Amino acid sequence: MSSLAQDHSLFEIDRELDMLLDEIEEEIESRGEASPELVGRFQQFCEAHSEKADRIGRFLRMMEARVQYCRSEANRLQERARSSERKATQTKYMVMHYLKSRDLKKIEGREFTLRIQKNSQDSVRFPDETQVPMRYRTVAARLDGASWERVIESVPEELKRVLVASIQEAAPSNEAIKNAVQNQIPVPGAEVYRGDHLRVA
Questions:
Q1: pTM for the complete prediction?
Q2: Is 48 within 8 Å of 13 (Cβ atoms)?
Q3: pLDDT tens, 101-110?
Q4: Of 17, 138, 154, 160, which one has the fewest beta carbons inside 10 Å?
Q5: Is residue 13 within 8 Å of residue 45, measured between CB atoms?
Q6: How far apart are CA 126 and CA 119, in angstroms?
Q7: What is d(CA 38, CA 35) in angstroms, rounded to the nearest whole number?
Q8: Residues 6 or more apart in contact with residue 35 via CB below 8 angstroms
Q9: What are phi and psi of 115, to 5 degrees?
Q10: Distances (CA, A) of 96 to 12, 86, 102, 156
Q11: Nearest partner of 105 among 118, 90, 94, 116, judged by Cα
């Protein structure tokens, strides 16, 4: 049975079962009963069908577990990357403090030279970021489309162009679309439907 499940897809097994059922019905009509060989083959494909379902179920469970593992590993590795970056930054500051406190430009090892060097462009430091006026900030705002439309309609044309040009992403909101359709409001370019999903139990 395992070889049948291994060598045939679920669709092929299903098609074979349909054909075998037709043959069994024909033999019963013509001879009064189905041959033992035909019944045996039908039983084999029934068991292969069950085995195939189990194989697919095991495969899906394995893939779902792999997805969870990869996501947890991604989170763990991201945290390790952040931790390593913090340590590298702290070490650089420590070495720079050491060099500046001794009025040195560099220290040399066998493999590496650690040197203080001017940056190629100015940097900005924030002793108190809360004091920085809004006009000197980049604003990343998130609001629903209805609020956005009200804002756009209420501002002068010049500011409207600035706001529209500043859009970086405007993804459809599933929740807003579903609420609109529930209230009998059609949404162009979108449709709400009740889909299916495969449950492995």
A1: 0.55
A2: yes
A3: 999 989 999 9
A4: 138
A5: yes
A6: 18
A7: 5
A8: 27
A9: -135, 140
A10: 70, 15, 10, 51
A11: 116
